[in-house]
Amino acid sequence: MLRPGPVSSPALHRLSIAEIILRDQEARDWFTNLHETVLEVAPRRHTTKEERIKIAVLDTGVQQETFENWLQQRQIRNRVSYTSFVNGDSGYPPCDDADHGTHIAALLLRTAPNADVLIARVANGTSIEAADSITKVRRFHGLRTPA
After folding, report:
1. Inside any domain, residue 1
2. Fewest C-beta atoms under 10 Å: which of 23, 57, 61, 88?
3. What pLDDT, on a 0 to 100 scale, did the predictor assign at position 136?
């Protein structure tokens, strides 16, 4: 199962334990419904790497532990990639200073099972460091410009 790291939010700290458990169960129910009613009946398209839709996540990166976990999962490892355009960042090991990119990528991997998720770290958690990151990501992944 895809699970991002722990969530730390001021809004969550104001909720009671019962409210957090209820919200967690509602999210689990939503994903169960998505998988049982939508994804099970949706036609399987774009199954080869060349045909799959590419979704680029230009964000704060991805947590190293989460990314390495995804690489161990057979159904995911060929659908996810990571690179960094933050100055001074070698790109490995992956990192995510704010956890936002990790959560977005996890959500996409769960809801778009026939898409490739290209994670590009363009922000250090407080600011965008790669202003021309869209062009860099397109070039890096060999994506064509839309007509």
Report:
1. no
2. 88
3. 73
Residue range of the domain that includes 17: 9-42
For residue range 123-145, list pLDDT tens digits in order.
Answer: 877 777 666 766 777 776 676 66
Helix %, strand %, coil % of the chain (to 5): 40, 15, 45
DSSP H helices in 9-132: 10-13, 17-33, 64-72, 74-77, 100-111
pLDDT digits (tens, 9 = 90+) for 54-112: 898 989 999 999 999 999 998 888 889 998 888 777 778 899 988 899 999 999 998 88
Q: Give the closest residue to 129 by CA, choosing from 71, 79, 88.
A: 88
The total of structural domains in the chain comes to 2
Amino acid present at 138 = R
Q: What is the C-alpha to C-alpha distance for residues 39 and 122, in angstroms, rounded to an integer?
A: 31
Alpha-carbon span 12 to 3, nearest angstrom = 17
